[in-house]
Amino acid sequence: MNTLFALATGAMFAMGVFQLLRRDLIKAAMGFYILFTAINLLFLAVGAYDGVVPAYVNSDNTLDGQPSDPLVQALILTAIVISFGSYALLLGLIAVSSRRFRTVDSDEVDQLKG
Amino acid sequence: MIQIVCLIVLFSLAILTPLVARQVRSDRQGMFLSLVLMALFGAFLLQLPAVTSGTAEQFSAGWMPQIGLSFSFMLDGLSLLFALVITGVGAAVMLYAGYYFDKPEESTRFFALIMAFTGSMLALVMAGNLITLFIAWEGTSILSFLLIGFKGKDQEARRSASQALMITGGGGLALLAGLLLLGSAAGSYELADIAASGEALQMHPWIGAILILIFIGCFTKSAQFPFHFWLPNAMSAPSPASAFLHSATMVKAGVYLLARLQPTLGDLPLWTTALPVFGLVTLGFGALVALRQTDLKGMLAYSTISQLGALVALIGLPESHGIKAAMVGILAHALYKGTLFLVVGAVDHAAETRDIRILGGLRRTLPGFAWVTLIAGLSMAGMPPLFGFVSKELMIEAVIQQPIALAVMGVSAALTVTLALRLYLEVFILPPRETALPAHEAHHLPRGMVIGPGVLAAASIVAGIGIAPLITPLVEPAVGTDTRLYLFPPEGINQAFLMSMLALAVGAGVFAIRRVWLAWRLPTLITGPQVYRAAVSGVESFGDLLLRSQNGKIRNYLMVILLSVLILIALPILILDRGLPIPPILLTTAADVLKAVLLILSLLATAASILLDRHLLAALALGAAGYAIGGIFLLEPAPDVALVQFLVETLATVLIIVILARTSTEERKRAISTLWGGVSRRGVWRDAALSAAIGAAVTTFALAAVSSRQGRTTIADWHLANALPQVGVNDVVAGIITDFRGTDTVIEISVFGIAALGVLTLLARPVPGRTRILIRRRRRRSDTQLKDALQEDAETPELLLYRSRFTNPVTQLAASIILPIAVLIALGHILYAGAAPGDGFTAGVIIGLGIALWFVVYGYEDTKRRLPWLHPTPLIGFGLTLALVNALLPVLFGRAFLAFTPVNGIDIAEIKIASTTLFEIAICLAVFGGISTIMEAISHPRECEPL
Amino acid sequence: MTDTLLLGPIFIPLLGAAVGILLSREKTIQHAIGFAAGVLAWLCSIGVLAATLNGDLLTYRLGGWTPPYGIVLVGDLLSALFAVMATTVIAAGLLYALGCRDQSVSYPAFMPLFLCMGAGLNGALYTGDIFTLFVFIELMVIASVILVAISDNRLGLEAAIKYLFISAMGTLFLLIGIASLYATFGTLNMADIGRLLATGERPLLAQSAAVMLMCAFLLKSAVFPFHFWQPDFHTTAPTPVHAVLSSVVVKVGVYGLIRMMTLMFTAEAPLIQDLLVILGVIGICFGSLGALRTYDAKRLLAYSTFGQIGFILVGIGWGTAAALAGALVYAVNHAFIKSSLLMITGTVSSRKHNKSAKIADIGGLGKGMVLASGLYFLGGLSLAGVPPLNGFVSKVALVQGGIGTDEWVVFGLVVGAGMITLLYMTRTWQLIFQQPPADSLKTKPHGDSPLAPTLLIGLCIALGFFASPLLDVAARTVAQLGDPQVYIRAVLGG
Fold first, then answer.
1. Which of A66, B59, B331, B663 has the fewest CB atoms lying closer than 10 Å?
2. Are B508 and B417 in contact (CB under 8 A)?
């Protein structure tokens, strides 16, 4: 299972990178998003143990069964929020640039050079 | 003590002059400053007995011991000699400069710079520490740069200035390296210690490199071939500066340093070969080129170069044969060459030209200067009983044993005579060859102007006649051994005397036939300037080559970055691959099977989002992938994460769809057409290969991660064990988020908040042009005017969204119902954050989605009208402030930042009230504010109201 | 009690930002609060440095949770020194912003964003938890991206997009590194990781994690080959932001490198150092020549930053105590020099209507601006390492560190590169302040206020004459870094 997980993470990464390298800025932004999703998968994979129950403790502070790693979940939550924030910002930037430079083709957004 | 005093005096003068002297007539300024320098001259003279007896006081104070820099100054014979030259010549030059400048503001600037220079120059010759010496050295270079570029508006001056700075500054860097190496080799940067550790140094392995570096420094500064060419160009400086810096003092700094190190390192073969060779080449070269100059200053510059060459050669002579001659030479040259530069300045002033071909017969207009020139010229030519004669005698005497050196000396001596004759006769006596400017047109000069050069010229006579009583005591301590100086050889006529007489005769002869050799065309050989220019342009073109890599294409940048990371990571990854136990794929439980299915699903969806060209479909596919991932989280089982994932995914999809609606279709069509490499597919394959490689690397990472995580303890155990007892939550994840790692969350919502703020500010930013009006109108918050403003450009595509296209009774009903429900659910999330999935963040997102629906359904204007209470950005601010206050309050009460404080006694429906509840509310507000800010911003046609 | 000081540089600006967003309609109050927050943060950071001078570390347990389970802020000499550098420049930047006439500065969001950038920077320097490091860096990055995107320079948007993409790469590297560290050690606390790494055999993922973190930090410091974003991103920023970005924000990567090499990956350090020397040399050449061939007063300085970071990396790469100390001194001095130069350039170009800093546009514009001219000249000389300014001290300190090593070529390059710096700085000075202005040149009567750069140049001169304290702190810092156990014990106790 873990092997499958790892493979999936890698595949997700590969697709993200490919998408990121498109000239179409909107597609590239999608790649950006895919990459961060893949990172979340990676974090899930490095979680301490294969849990069978959610990381909830009963009111007598006992656990019924091996819980999933709560720490990585917290990290993933933080990562998701931050990556979503950047994603939203990126989309906003692209929207404005399409208004200002009249294009969403990254090769045409190249006035800064030399 | 005197060292410090004079430094303080000079530098404070440098600072004060421009401040106070603006109103003072420039000649008064000059007089005052020359008096100051005379006083200093006297003060130094009074030090002579102490110096001779070697009891002159040293000054030393700690400065930066860590880098071996101490604020230490000394005063021995050598220093004193130079100090006297600097102050003496300086006094004359100041007096002269006062008349040279017409405008007071010019003269103040000049005097400020020249005072600073005098200070640095004195510091240089009195420095007792290598780094102190270097500081002064660089100081002189910089001030010379400023003085050469004194007429900043003239481009030629600017170019010469920076060329001079390049040569001397570059040499300075070499010198710095040399001095630092020397210091660390000797174990101390104090000159005294270095002088003491002579033998050890001569054995040291680095000594060769050290010498070469120091030589480069000194040669550049003292204009030795092939670094000489900056000096003639430096003549664009005002004449007083040329007289002072570029003949009397600064250019002798290199000579000084060599003389300073000669007792310590003078016996090394490298020393006794390199210095004479370069010195003699410079001597001959300078003397030759000087004759063919047409610019008077150019002539003087080259003859200065040749004199410097002589000095360097003399210092390089074995068993310090040449030191005596060098010391006398320094004095003599300073006197006559300084005089001549001042004269040329006056001539330039009077006749408004320095071209010797035009000049002539000036003795009628400038009788005083004619006499001065005669004396100085004769001294330069080495005519007894003038000072120059003595110095030339000594030079010849010093090299009498070495035929080659003797030959070069003799020839250049003869040529110098010719030069002197040209200067005097062609400028003052003979009528101009090309009658361009009749002499009488040259206007007269203020009487005082002649005093300065006059004094110097007189000094040449006095020093010559009174050589034994006057000069010997000065030179003796500098040379170190007891020295005998005389005007005429006591033991009668000797070879040296004959030599110089011969030189005089030959020189006169050469002058007589000047018509002949002035007509010659000399072959132009490759020299410094060409090399310098070639080097500069080579460097520049290389720079352009590098800059071409900055080609503005983001994809190339990303590709290079990813590729480099791959290269860097390759090695460790390969290490990883060995010893990496790859567990087989076992799908034991139903959950595993389901997970596998979802994984594959998400991968397929992602692939679809790549393959589908149309943005909308791609976005939807992406959403699907995200949901699948959410499902995986759910099965992990990680309900909290799953919930957030679902919500955020929804939000992201809504967001991108609205953005798509805002960007013009044809632009996107154009972009899409580029997706698959356009003409050539090679690009696509390259990208694919790169992606595959990255994917493989990450896969290895993940495998290693999952295999290395087996059976190791982690801090998560502690969190699991302490969530309930410490912070009273069953949901350990929530416990970590709000308490154990609460700070992460504080920062995280700040990031989210400012990202939203950014989107708003970006879209609200008035793009130059008409839309400014729009903003200003909207500041008045008047919808009708807003409408008018929008009517102005009704054809813009954004307007379609402005009045929503999804608005119809059903959707409106849905929106109106969903919002309150969302609020209720959110409330639940906040209150039961610790007990069930969901927390402040999810709550915020849920309400945010409710609002998002409104914006989609009603469009910007209606939403703003129907929800008047909605002020998104203040919400962000309030949320963040609340969170931070909640976190910082405990600090005021002496408890930890963000300390967990339960509120007991309230027990309704198992709601646990605690500081965390406040925190959750804050998070919710900030997130909700953020999301609605974003929605408001992007759902507004052009700009929305700036906050 | 002094431990609480650690909160100041991070959370005072953050609070100022939050309140600033609330008060976004009252620009004056907002700016006043922002500046006050900046000054307070500065004072706190100085307090931290003062408290750490005697060699003991400050640690603050956020939420009161014992490390490694909770997040801890750590003030050792390294972070304290860098934080003082950062807060000084940020305060100066805020002061400049008060007197800045850019339109972007007048936006209500400007001040909060600026403060968030500062808070993120200080947080990244103080935090002892590697995941929190990531969070703080993101705060800094996002804030700076927006600040550049809203710049008066319309190309700021392009630069912002590019940087957001590229910095995302850095974030990914950092996260992968963190993930592998957590997978290997089950902890996120850097001291804890250091402790575990020090105990014997190399775990499977250690090297890869090291490489990933290194890449992330190199990218943040815009080191070759991760540098592409820097000239665009810095040059198009509003002047106060540019000053902060180009002088202190780029140093975060340097800080991270030093931290990971001295605290965590001591075994991998030699390899990394060799790499750093190579990259540093490339940076020196590329930066210097790039600056030489760039005829835009701001972009030129961005390239020079590229080169200067190279010097610092070489210092770290040489690895000797003296060299590392030299690198630290270099980093601090460069921050002050570069920020002041940028601000002066800003004051000049702000008198141009289009705010352009192209030499073609502002050539001769500075004629008659005596103060600016003098400041720029001093700054330029200091950047080129001319005595007696602080640039000279850092150069000498660095070069002396290199004497021990046998890398003579690098040594010569480090010394010689100063010549190119001298060339382009004096040339630019002549072109802006000496040559007669073009007749077509139209200028506004008022530019930005030169107060902030004046103070900074004063600081540069002071640090040139009285460098002993700084050199002293640097030496102590290096000594402290020499023994990671000090840090580990201070954080984990025992």
1. A66
2. yes
* Coil/strand/helix, residue B518: helix
Backbone φ and ψ for B575, nearest 5 degrees, come out as -55, -45
Q: Which residue do the tokens 């873990």 mark?
A: A2
Smallest Cα–Cα separation from B749: which of B578, B576, B931? Answer: B931
Who contacts B553 (Cβ-Cβ below 8 Å, separation ≥6)?
A106, A107, A110
> Is 70 exceeded by the pLDDT of residue B133?
yes
Q: What is the pTM of this model?
A: 0.93
CA B54 – CA B48 distance, rounded (Å):
9
Residue whose pair of structure tokens reads 């603050």 in the numeric block:
C60
Task: Confirm if C383 and C427 have CB atoms less than 8 A apart.
Answer: no
Those residues whose C-beta lies under 8 Å from the C-beta of residue B901, and which sit 6 or more positions away, are B890, B895, B914, B915
Q: Would you place residue B805 in the very low, low, confident or very high pLDDT band (cuts 50, 70, 90)?
A: low
Rounded Cα distance between B451 and B449, Å, is: 6
Using 50, 70 and 90 to split pLDDT, how confident is the model at B910? low
pLDDT tens digits, one per residue of B683-729: 888 999 999 999 998 888 888 877 777 667 788 889 988 888 888 88
The region of weakest confidence among B302-306, B336-340, B437-441 is B437-441
Q: Nearest CA to CA, how far is C145 from chain B (Å)?
A: 9
At C411, list the tokens. 């040594």
Q: Is B395 helix (H, G, I), strand (E, B) or coil?
A: helix
What is the per-residue pLDDT for A79? 94
What are the tokens at C55? 């060699």
Tokens 């006398």 label which residue?
Answer: B328
Q: Helix B915-939 to helix B809-831 angle, to the nearest 10 degrees?
A: 160
**CA-angle at B559, arms to B555 and B561, nearest 5°:** 120
pLDDT at B947 over 50: no
Minimal Cα distance from B542: which residue of C?
C289
Q: Residue B781 region, left (φ>0) first, then alpha (ψ -120 to 50), else beta?
A: left
Would you call C149 and A96 a contact, using CB atoms and an 8 Å cutoff? yes
Angle formed at CA C82 by CA C111 and CA C460, multiple of 5 degrees: 85
Which DSSP category does B455 fall into?
Answer: H
pLDDT at B942 over 60: no
B726 to chain A, any CB pair closer than 8 A? The answer is no
- Rounded distance between C-alpha atoms, residue C475 and residue B747, angstroms: 34
- B127, amino acid identity: A
pLDDT on residue C119: 96
DSSP C23-82: TTT-HHHHHHHHHHHHHHHHHHHHHHHHHHTTSPPEEEEGGGPPTTTS-EEEE-HHHHHH
Residues of chain B neighbouring A62 (CB-CB closer than 8 A): none
Asked casually if ipTM beats, i.e. exceeds, 0.90, the reply is: yes
Contact C19 B881 (CB under 8 A): yes
Query: Which of A45, A78, A97 lies at the smallest CB-CB distance from C161?
Result: A97
* Contact call for A3 and B749, based on CB within 8 A: no
- Give, as one character, the DSSP assignment of residue B428: I
Q: Determine contact: B641 vs chain A, CB below 8 A.
A: yes
Q: Which residues contact C291 (CB under 8 A, 6 or more apart)?
A: C300, C301, C303, C304, C306, C307, C420, C421, C424
- C-alpha to C-alpha distance for A85 and B387, rounded to whole angstroms: 84
State the Cα–Cα distance between residues C378 and C369, nearest whole angstrom.
14
Q: At what angle do helices B387-398 and B367-381 cross, to 10 degrees?
A: 20
CA-closest candidate to residue C298, choices C436, C159, C114 = C159
Amino acid at B153: K
User: Residues near C318 by Cβ (< 8 Å), separated by ≥ 6?
Assistant: C273, C277, C324, C401, C402, C404, C405, C407
Cis preceding linkage at C388, omega within 30? yes
